[in-house]
DNA sequence: TCCCGGTAACAGGAACATACTGTACCCGCT
DNA sequence: AGCGGGTACAGTATGTTCCTGTTACCGGGA
């Protein structure tokens, strides 16, 4: 009947609100992060809405349900952690340096956002049957997978093990760090990061050698544009 | 006044029911496992009670709340997995053989009990702020910790890294296997188990070398009673 | 010895209270 | 017209209370 072109807004009165939904969603997620920080991991949607300065039912204007909000929070956390890790992983340099810097950033972030981490562990996105931490870990692992694949291709090696390695590395770091958070023992954060970096390198080294690639962890990686030199 | 010795029941009418509570708890947990297998991971307490042939409210006679039941389920799963892993870990033999057998049992168990695994991932025991999978993983990791500590002591090495290593190993295996379960790609279960075994050994080897211990993964471990021989 | 009322502890369930989630609808503003 | 706000309400899951059996043990009396 009426023309409803997707390419151009029908009415200026509609264009006025373009992106409004996304803005409001971000506001709610921001409020949720503040509420988690202040009320702890067992925060209710009521408290989140209060933190946003709105009534609880307003939430359903912008989120399909509570799981949708939690998905938004998980996405935001993924952004935050990715932003922490990106400098370490994209800066290039030696493998060991990248690993050590990334793990240090990761352990620091977790230590500083314990409530947020606990919130994610105890809320499940029943829609997909996964919990929020799994979603965040999956997102990180997929980034790592891409990184590994890029570097494996530089050496002409197969990329089929990149994904299992990436998920293994993420699980290794997360599990050990989570335990350390709840039960630090006599282990300092930097010592833990050193240990994890060593173990992660051993894991990567094993996967690389299985592909016939030998790397010195303390020599810089080749860069896509430059000629590469495999070192034994 | 009246004799009420703790050593002997005052009345046969009371003694009749000794252990009844534990029996009923086990029955409920059994019913829950069946209900999860048949109704999927989103099973309700109502359905569990129905599977047990009882009204829902009966549950609260034996469990403090729903989290208590889930704790019971998590404990049972821990028993089941521990029973799967124990033969591999206690049989002795070479490190590589133990690792490979344990990981094979673990991947097989997860592949066969996908619904149960998903149930655990999506139900949180809010009492402690942890999810059920974390509890199971923690229990397994503690068993591994003890195993590592025993063997480290045989070599006169420090045991302070046993716990971080154990949790790291558990996280590594669980994370990679969980991803493989949801997204197997072209990787067979046995190939995955081989990869994980190699990586776990590299991790253990790194931790051992940091303590000055070098082991050949394909030579049998020393046994407590026998003289030990470190092999370079 | 056997029967019999009494009793302790469990079995089962209905009715109720509470909390969280999500929907419907109403009004106001620009 | 379209968004902003909120109250009232429905649905569901979670616990609690209370009432009615049921079973096996106990002690006493014929």
Keywords for this structure?
Tetracycline Repressor, domain 2; 2% strand; 9 helices; DNA-binding; 2 domains; Arc Repressor Mutant, subunit A; two-stranded antiparallel ribbon; disordered C terminus; homodimer; 232 residues
Layout: helices, strands, pairs:
The structure is a homodimer of 232-residue chains.
Chain A: H1 12-15, H2 20-39, H3 45-52, H4 66-90, H5 95-112, H6 114-121, E1 124-125, E2 130-131, H7 132-154, H8 162-182, H9 189-210
Antiparallel strand pairs in A: 1-2
Helix pairs in contact in A: 2-3, 2-4, 4-5, 4-7, 5-8, 5-9, 7-8, 8-9
Chain B binds a DNA duplex (30 and 30 nucleotides) through residues 11-17, 20, 24, 44-46, 54-58, 60-61, 65-66.
DNA-binding region (chains A, B): 44-63
GO molecular function (chains A, B): DNA-binding transcription factor activity; transcription cis-regulatory region binding
Region (Disordered) (chains A, B): 1-21
Describe the structure.
Chains A, B: Residues 1-21 are annotated as: Disordered. The structure is a homodimer of 232-residue chains. The first copy, chain A, is an all-alpha fold and 232 residues long. Chain A folds into 2 domains: 13-63, Homeodomain-like (Arc Repressor Mutant, subunit A); 65-232, Tetracycline Repressor, domain 2 (Orthogonal Bundle). The first copy, chain A, has helices at 12-15, 20-39, 45-52, 66-90, 95-112, 114-121, 132-154, 162-182, 189-210; strands at residues 124-125, 130-131. The first copy, chain A, has a two-stranded antiparallel sheet with strand order 1-2. In chain A, a hairpin with a 4-residue loop joins strand 1 and strand 2 (130-131). Mean pLDDT of chain A is 87; it is low at 1-10 and 227-232. Chain B binds a DNA duplex (30 and 30 nucleotides) through helix 1.
């Amino acid at each position: 009947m009426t023309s409803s072109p997707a390419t151009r807004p029908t009415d200026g009165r509609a264009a006025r609100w373009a992106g409004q939904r996304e803005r409001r969603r971000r506001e709610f997620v921001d409020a949720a992060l503040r509420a988690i920080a202040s009320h702890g991991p067992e925060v209710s949607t009521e408290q989140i809405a209060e933190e946003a300065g709105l009534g609880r039912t307003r939430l359903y204007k912008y989120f399909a349900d509570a799981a949708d909000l939690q998905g938004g929070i998980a996405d935001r956390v993924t952004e935050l952690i990715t932003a922490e890790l990106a400098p370490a992983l994209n800066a290039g340099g030696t493998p060991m340096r990248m690993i050590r810097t990334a793990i240090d950033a990761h352990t620091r972030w977790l230590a500083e956002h314990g409530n947020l981490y606990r919130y994610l562990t105890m809320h499940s996105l029943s829609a997909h049957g996964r919990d929020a931490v799994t979603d965040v870990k999956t997102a990180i692992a997929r980034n790592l997978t891409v990184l590994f694949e890029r570097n494996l291709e530089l050496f002409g090696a197969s990329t089929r093990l990149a994904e299992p390695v990436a998920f293994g590395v993420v699980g290794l770091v997360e599990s050990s760090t989570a335990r350390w958070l709840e039960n630090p023992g006599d282990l300092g954060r930097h010592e833990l990061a050193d240990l994890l970096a060593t173990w992660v390198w051993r894991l990567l080294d094993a996967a690389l050698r299985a592909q016939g690639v030998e790397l010195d962890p303390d020599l810089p990686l080749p860069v896509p544009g430059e000629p590469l030199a495999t070192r034994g």
